[in-house]
């Protein structure tokens, strides 16, 4: 069951689920369990009679209840990534040969582990083991021991008594030395000691005559230990990220079977020509050293050399003999000071990958066009202006090409042959003037990046023919529109349009239906004005771009803005594009006129079409000067990350609280004055950034100094407090309102005619007047109101364990208006009093659903109720509820 093992699944048993299934191969029965609780695993095992292999992964296992029922002849037991801090109890281990407990939380091994007499493979990687018990030495048949990624600082010498051991991995521990007895492992073939604190090896280390693979990377060696050169069977030696300096030891020539030599990221300054005697050498990596020259003999005599990595070595030239490497498949010369490549390279017929990024090359040699097997080329950050004329010969087989950070003004058609197999194409940071229509030839292209090309003003329609495209990066160009054909990119998952010159959101994006990541940062610069906002205008509009198409508003504004938004589900792309063109005809308002006028925008149907992107996971619209965002988050069921920071938002879209999958939200550096929706109740929220807004002092302090948990507790208490105050005010209102004034007030609450008629039918007659008022307020607020008189001035809400809340302030300025909303209603007779409905009790419970009223207008708040009464000149009522408001404040502790 190794990670690299290839298994031929022969038979799948019935009753398969994604969490538990069985595979039968070569008469061996394998039981698999994934993401199940302990008890369910135990129950399933009880029902099973046979099993040679048990695999349990990513399950939460309980130490007290977990017991493995062992079937006859259980041979392999795998329990990985279960955060288990104990070894499972197994009642019969006579046939167990393979035990994998990797990536758990085990800190100690029990002494009876030595009883697993038949064990051949023991994997304990990724735990918290600090020492290895001596009893492990009793595992005489053990051949593979993996202790990597633990906390072992001392390696007991008794472990070296396991004479059958062939594979030992102690990487990523805290070992500072090895025991001298390690030489008593006569059959050891593989030893991995990467990422420890070793400075030397035992002198008798050379007695490991069967050692074939040795990794000593990321330790503290200042030189290559001499004993390594006496391990004559060594085929692979990795010595990366150490402190060795000077000349690479020519004693490596003694390792005549060496095939892989990796000396990357040391401080070597010279590579000796004697290494050319390593006739079997296939892989040579000297990356990140200070070697300025490659001996020609290594290229000409190491006939089997297939991979040569000389990147970041300060090379200013490469030998002409480099072109004679007949078997060379991968050549990496990146991050050097090369100005040209060898003029001859016709023998490089096996070359499949060429990396020469970050050099100073201005011309490519013609021999590259004859290397028909090349599938990957990186020419990033050079001085190229064009490609060789016959480049189309090599372009036919290319899968990856990176031409970023050069001086190309056009994309050569030789790079776009009709039968192209190109999958990755990067042209960032070039002075490109346009993209040719031949881009359509890249039928297999999955990743296209053309960012930071400021001369690109438009894209060809043919880009829509790239049907396999998954990633499209177009940031930091000069695009003002997108081609209609973009909607044909049905496999596109990632789109970056940031830092372009769009005057409005391109509607075609809303029709790329499988989009998962959308980046649209710093695009609508026209939205960002430094002038003060006209008072009240932003509270009554639903636009995403206030500078796009606004005209002067008259007094009719108040009636129009409260009309519900039309349903846009069935709009087609052509209709949306036509609306976009029509919007372009509306004259733009000059920035200096904003402070003098009150504006509105015709119903903008384009931004709300974002709700079509049902698969969206990541949405970023930072630094766009947005004043409003469409209330569409209830339709984005998969959205996890939302970034709307550095805009001009005054309100948080109400539906944001219904997007349960969100875990990251950034609303920092906007102009929010309140948190007007229950985003703190999102179940998966792990990060909420609200800094740099205009919240009241108390809330700002909580945001600045509290954790997310503390902020959510504060907001929850604030919500309960607001509901309590509103309820107290409504109770006072019921007792003070006059029957002659009520019809006008009821209509202003936003109750529809059908809702008013329903109340009249349910509670007829003058004697039910107060009941009708109470029921209307229940419909408006969504709260249950007591039928008994309450002394609101002296009552207080239930005690909370969260931060105390700020005082609530009121104003006569216009508050936000919203489309039609629905509130839950009380079940039962009109005279029914809900339990716990007394004012002195804690928060209000939602009312059960029977009749669903229609309520038009903003959410009910204490400030809204007081403001409405003042607008209607109901001064006596306003004073009465204001008294309740002032007396019901909860003072900060």
User: What top-tier CATH class of the domain at 507-529 and 543-692 fits best?
Assistant: Alpha Beta
* CATH 2nd-level architecture of the domain at 507-529 and 543-692: Alpha-Beta Horseshoe
Assembly state here?
single chain
Helicity, in percent?
Answer: 10-25%
How many DSSP helices? Answer: 12
| Average pLDDT over all residues | 81
How would a crystallographer describe the biggest sheet? 28 strands, mixed
List the helices and strands and how they pair.
Blueprint: E1 11-12, E2 20-25, E3 28-34, H1 38-47, E4 53-57, E5 67-68, E6 76-80, E7 89-90, E8 98-100, E9 121-123, E10 144-146, E11 167-169, E12 190-192, E13 213-215, E14 236-238, E15 245-247, E16 260-262, E17 267-270, E18 283-285, H2 296-301, E19 307-309, E20 330-332, E21 353-355, E22 376-378, H3 392-395, E23 400-402, E24 424-426, E25 447-449, E26 471-473, E27 494-496, E28 517-519, E29 550-552, H4 557-560, H5 573-584, E30 599-601, E31 618-620, E32 641-643, E33 664-666, E34 687-689, H6 697-705, H7 708-736, H8 742-748, H9 753-762, H10 769-781, E35 821-822, E36 854-855, H11 862-871, H12 875-887
Parallel strand pairs: 3-4, 4-6, 5-7, 6-8, 8-9, 9-10, 10-11, 11-12, 12-13, 13-14, 14-16, 15-17, 16-18, 18-19, 19-20, 20-21, 21-22, 22-23, 23-24, 24-25, 25-26, 26-27, 27-28, 28-31, 31-32, 32-33, 33-34
Antiparallel strand pairs: 1-2, 2-3, 29-30, 35-36
Helix pairs in contact: 7-10, 7-12, 11-12
Domain Death: 741-780
Organism: Mesocestoides corti
GO cellular component, one term: cytoplasm
């Amino acid at each position: 069951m190794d990670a690299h093992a290839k298994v031929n699944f022969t038979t799948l048993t019935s009753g398969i689920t994604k969490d538990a299934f069985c595979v039968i191969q070569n008469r061996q029965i394998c039981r698999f369990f994934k993401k199940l609780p302990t008890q369910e695993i135990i129950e399933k095992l009880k029902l099973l009679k046979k099993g040679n292999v048990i695999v349990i992964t990513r399950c939460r296992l309980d130490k007290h209840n977990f017991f493995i029922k062992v079937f006859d002849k259980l041979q392999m037991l795998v329990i990985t990534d279960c955060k288990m801090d104990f070894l499972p109890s197994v009642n019969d281990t006579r046939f167990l040969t393979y035990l994998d407990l990797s990536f758990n939380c085990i800190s100690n091994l029990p002494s009876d582990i030595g009883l697993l007499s038949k064990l051949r493979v023991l994997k304990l990687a990724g735990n918290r083991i600090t020492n290895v018990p001596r009893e492990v030495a009793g595992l005489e048949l053990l051949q593979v021991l993996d202790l990597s990624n633990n906390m072992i600082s001392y390696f007991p010498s008794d472990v070296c008594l396991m004479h059958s051991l062939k594979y030992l991995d102690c990487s990523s521990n805290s070992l500072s030395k090895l025991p001298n007895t390690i030489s008593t492992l006569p059959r050891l073939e593989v030893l991995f000691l990467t990422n420890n604190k070793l400075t030397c090896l035992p002198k008798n280390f050379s007695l490991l005559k069967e050692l074939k693979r040795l990794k000593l990377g990321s330790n503290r060696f200042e030189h290559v230990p001499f004993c390594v050169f006496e391990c004559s069977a060594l085929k692979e030696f990795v010595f990366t990220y150490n402190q060795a300096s000077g000349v690479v030891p020519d004693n490596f020539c003694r390792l005549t079977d060496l095939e892989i030599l990796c000396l990357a990221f040391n401080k070597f300054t010279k590579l000796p020509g004697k290494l050319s005697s390593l006739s079997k050498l296939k892989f040579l990596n000297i990356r990140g050293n200070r070697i300025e020259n490659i001996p020609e003999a290594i290229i000409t005599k190491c006939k089997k050399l297939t991979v040569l990595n000389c990147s970041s070595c300060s090379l200013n030239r490469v030998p002409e003999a480099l072109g004679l490497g007949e078997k060379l498949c991968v050549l990496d010369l990146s991050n050097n000071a090369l100005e040209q490549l060898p003029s001859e390279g016709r023998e490089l017929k096996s070359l499949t990958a060429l990396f020469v990024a970050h050099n100073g090359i201005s011309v490519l040699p013609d021999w590259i066009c004859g290397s028909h097997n090349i599938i990957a080329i990186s020419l990033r950050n050079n001085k190229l202006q064009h490609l060789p004329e016959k480049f189309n010969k090599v372009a036919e087989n290319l899968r990856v090409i990176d031409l970023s950070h050069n001086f190309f003004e056009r994309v050569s058609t030789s790079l776009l042959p009709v039968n192209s197999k190109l999958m990755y194409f990067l042209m960032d940071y070039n002075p490109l003037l346009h993209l040719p229509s031949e881009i359509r030839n890249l039928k297999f292209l999955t990743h296209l990046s053309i960012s930071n090309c400021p001369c690109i003003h438009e894209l060809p329609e043919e880009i829509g023919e790239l049907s396999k495209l998954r990633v499209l990066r177009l940031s930091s160009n000069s695009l003002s529109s997108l081609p209609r054909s973009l909607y044909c990119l049905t496999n596109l998952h990632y789109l970056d349009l940031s830092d372009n010159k769009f005057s409005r959101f391109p509607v075609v994006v809303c029709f790329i239906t499988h989009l998962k990541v959308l980046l649209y940062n710093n695009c609508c610069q026209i939205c960002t004005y430094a002038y003060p906002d006209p008072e009240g205008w932003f509270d009554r509009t639903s636009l995403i771009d206030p500078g796009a198409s606004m005209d002067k508003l008259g007094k009719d504004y108040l009636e129009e803005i409260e009309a519900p938004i039309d349903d846009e589900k069935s709009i087609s792309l052509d209709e949306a594009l036509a609306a976009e063109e029509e919007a372009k005809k509306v004259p733009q308002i000059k920035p200096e006129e904003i402070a003098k006028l009150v504006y509105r925008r015709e119903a903008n149907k384009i931004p709300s079409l974002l709700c079509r992107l049902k698969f969206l996971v990541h949405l970023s619209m930072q630094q766009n000067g947005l004043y409003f965002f469409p209330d569409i988050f209830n339709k984005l069921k998969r959205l996890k990350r939302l970034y709307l920071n550095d805009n001009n938002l005054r309100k948080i879209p109400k539906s944001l609280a219904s997007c349960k999958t969100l875990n990251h939200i950034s609303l920092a550096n906007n102009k929010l004055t309140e948190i007007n929706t229950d985003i703190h109740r999102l179940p998966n929220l792990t990060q909420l950034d609200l800094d740099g807004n205009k919240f009241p002092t108390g809330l700002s302090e909580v945001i600045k100094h509290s954790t997310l948990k503390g902020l959510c507790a504060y907001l929850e208490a604030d919500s309960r407090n607001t509901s309590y105050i509103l309820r107290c005010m409504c109770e006072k209102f019921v007792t003070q309102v006059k029957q002659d004034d009520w019809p006008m007030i009821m209509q202003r609450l936003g109750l529809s005619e059908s809702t008013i008629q329903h109340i009249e039918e349910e509670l007829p007659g003058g004697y039910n007047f107060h009941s009708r008022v109470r029921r209307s307020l229940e419909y408006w607020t969504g709260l249950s109101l007591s039928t008994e008189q309450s002394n609101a001035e002296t009552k207080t809400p239930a005690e909370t364990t969260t931060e105390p809340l700020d005082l609530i302030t009121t104003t006569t300025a216009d508050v936000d208006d919203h489309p039609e909303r629905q509130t839950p209603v009380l079940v039962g007779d009109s005279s029914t009093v809900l339990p716990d409905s007394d004012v002195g009790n804690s928060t209000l419970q939602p009312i059960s659903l029977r009749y669903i009223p229609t309520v038009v207008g903003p959410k009910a708040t204490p400030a809204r109720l007081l403001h409405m009464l003042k607008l209607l000149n109901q001064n006596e009522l306003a004073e009465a509820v204001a008294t309740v408001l002032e007396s019901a404040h909860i003072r900060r502790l």
